[in-house]
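Q&A log
Question type: sequence-to-structure
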Amino acid sequence: MAPCMCSKISTADSLVLGALQIMIGIFHVFMWYFLLILYMGQIRGVFGTYEPITYKTGCALWGIIFIIAGGSIIRAVRHPTQGMITFALMMNIFCMIVAVIASILTTIELSSFNSVSYRNYGQAKLGREVSRVLLISYPLEFSIALTYSIFGCIGLSHHHNEDTLTAVTEEAESTF
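Response status: OK
Response body:
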């Protein structure tokens, strides 16, 4: 049988991935706040106000999940218990799901543009530009979460194998 050539992700790389997730999450929360101020300032016009699906669902506010996942990675690196590694892995899988859903909702929003009153057109246009920027960041978040999830599974299996090997070694030593 060939030896396993897969390796765990380094501590420094894990910390960088966690920090990147936290920064992306903070960026999304700030963009949500910006959109909140932008859309709340709309004036009722002839055609109404512009309230896209991503604004109604609070899509940019989902960045809180990215912050929690990044924090769980950092915590799992500093205190590598099986429970912390599993929690970080679950949070990153959840991040991937959230990033895909947010990408789909943002694409739906950007694919249709109902007319709004002339007074609110500038705010709607600026909000759509923010959505375009956020659409770029979702694949980045997905790739970071996927990277950690893959290496987290490898790390979890290595951690499990080391625990099993230690238990077998201790049992063999107690027999002699």
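Response note: The first helix runs from residue 11 to 40.
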